[in-house]
Amino acid sequence: MSRQEKYWIKEKFFPKAVIFDMDGLMLDTERIIKYSWDVTGENLGYGKLGDNIKNTLGMNRNQRNAYFLEKYGNDFPLQDFLDGYHQVYYEYERKNGIPKKEGLLSLLDFLKKEGIPTAVATSTHQKYAIATLKEQGIFSYFQEIITGDCVEYGKPNPAIYMLACKKLKVDPSFALALEDSYNGILSAAKAGMKVIMIPDLLEDETPVKEYLYGKLKTLEYVKQWIEKKHFYI
């Protein structure tokens, strides 16, 4: 596959607001979660469970919990699994930190300079999401933080993106969503937004291509696209 076929974008669009997913989009967290699930699954005698993340990307806490119970049965030690992987994750974070995705700060600085409002729409719980954004030094860039516990239904339901647009006082058709998961892409598209996929653990856009406005390699390319600069994809 050529580079031109792998990454693509539709015609120029200058957004009146940009709404960001968090995990896997701004921060390289999903790989660490996958690792944590592998370690904890083996500790509990279930083998590596990390591959399940590809089926749960974009889900909120309740949706993920329901997924594991449905797949592994009601006898699955859910609380032990949650406690275990959180411990593994936080220990990894303490030792290694959580990397920002390529181009994040460049894009955020550009949007701030241009006066384009921004928000976060993440399935992560509010307490953790806010703490993470502050630790990463990017909390102040966003006018609104909408988290999984702010809405009744999680992604792919459009509620979280509809609320984000409402809080920013922007019509969804004039707003841009940046996502890495299928559930997130569906959520934003159903809310009436234009959606660009920035691949993370999921690279094939085929299942959601009809809902996408484009697919770009990094957040830096999103900045260049909005600026109308020429770049190679």
Q: Any descriptors?
A:
43% helix; alpha/beta; single chain; globular; 10 helices; 233 residues; seven-stranded mixed β-sheet
Main beta sheet: 7 strands, mixed
Helix/strand structural class: alpha/beta
What share of the residues lie within helices? 40-55%
The average pLDDT value, as a whole number, equals 95
Order of helices and strands: HEEHHHHHEHEHEHEEH
Note down, in words, how this protein is organized:
The protein is of the alpha/beta class. The chain is 43% helix and 11% strand. It contains ten helices and seven strands. The chain has helices spanning 3-6, 30-43, 53-56, 61-72, 78-96, 104-114, 126-135, 159-168, 182-190, 219-226; strands at 8-9, 17-20, 118-122, 144-147, 175-179, 194-197, 214-215. The chain has a seven-stranded mixed sheet, sandwiched between helices. Strand 3 (118-122), helix 7 and strand 4 form a beta-alpha-beta unit. Helix 2 (30-43) crosses helix 5 and helix 6 (104-114) runs parallel beside helix 10 (219-226). The longest helix has 19 residues, at 78-96. The mean pLDDT is 95.
